[in-house]
Amino acid sequence: MSEPILEISGLSKVYAGGVKALDGVDLTIRKGEIFALLGPNGAGKTTLIGAVCGLIRPTGGTMHAFGYDMESEWRLARARIGLVPQELSTDMFEPVKYAVAYSRGLFGLSPNPVRIEEILRSLSLWDKRNDKIMMLSGGMKRRVLIAKALAHEPDLLFLDEPTAGVDVELRKDMWRLIGQMRERGTTIILTTHYIEEAEEMADRVGVIRGGKILMVDEKDALMARLGRTEALIELSAPLPAIPKELSAFNISLEAEGTVLRYLGGDGSGEGKAQVAALTKALTHAGVDYVGIDVHESSLEDIFVQLVGEEEAA
After folding, report:
1. Which residues pair with 160 in a beta bridge?
2. Tens of pLDDT along the chain (313 residues)?
């Protein structure tokens, strides 16, 4: 197991009026991983990122990054952290290359035109390097934010909804760049509304709601533990009731007896095996069917299930 690069313990943030944005958050991030933090709007994702990046002062708890106490040694820790925020916040009158170079200088690093060019080319910004930011499209402005965050070559990078509302081309560039950064050993924490992207990219997933972490797990382990297989079997003729030969399966009759619904498995492939066994049992019971639709839980299905359970509680 990789060494921890960020350790958060009992982190809380209470705003005026008693609103708890963070409620005793415990979280450990491993060096070199891609960690996806998922949660509905207002769950505390941006507040958590702001606390780590020094934009928000926590009410309580402790944070350590790279072994530094982020209260007493925050400058040393922050110098190794990059942030791509949701909102565009930069000088609109600056040319692109100067804005990115300036961000590098803010962290005390010497100019490095070769590295700046590499970053701009990787984000398809090189041809726009002399353009003022105000002249760029929304997607290009988002690319500038990413370039600025990468300028000081951070070891830990936060991406707060990096592809929200941007074009497909930028999204593809972003994920290609994340893959390259991971190969270089950069640790990445991202929040996203595109849960399929987290499913594709993340090593581990955390779910936050109401300022509390509901769970953290390896993505594959999470999908194996909470995933399900659902199958809809369209029958050639309605059934008045489920035959006793099928009583061992977790099935129900729907659509006036014309559809059998199966739900089971654990995301490890067991469900597909049970569906195969169910179809054989149907044949032995003399029940004809004309179609089967099988669906495996996605990370989004599991996320909705987790958040829904918390709301119900």
Report:
1. 191
2. 568 999 999 999 999 888 899 999 999 999 999 999 988 888 899 999 999 998 899 999 999 999 999 999 988 998 899 888 877 666 778 899 999 998 888 888 888 899 999 989 988 899 999 999 889 887 788 888 888 888 888 999 998 887 766 677 777 777 787 888 888 889 999 887 777 778 788 899 998 989 999 989 888 777 777 778 888 999 999 999 999 889 889 899 999 999 999 888 765 567 788 888 999 999 999 999 999 988 777 777 777 777 765 554 4
Q: Tell me, yes or no, if the two domains 4-223 and 228-296 fold the same way.
A: no
Architecture of domain 4-223: 3-Layer(aba) Sandwich (3.40)
The CATH number given to 228-296 is 3.30.70
Maximum separation of any 2 CA atoms in the chain, in Å: 78
Spatial CB neighbours of 89, under 8 Å, sequence gap ≥ 6: none
The residue length of the chain stands at: 313
What are residue 251's DSSP bridge partners? 262
Question: In the chain, what are the domain boundaries?
Answer: 4-223, 228-296
pTM above 0.85, yes or no: no
Tokens of 46: 């941006």
Other C-beta atoms closer than 10 Å to the C-beta of 20 total: 16
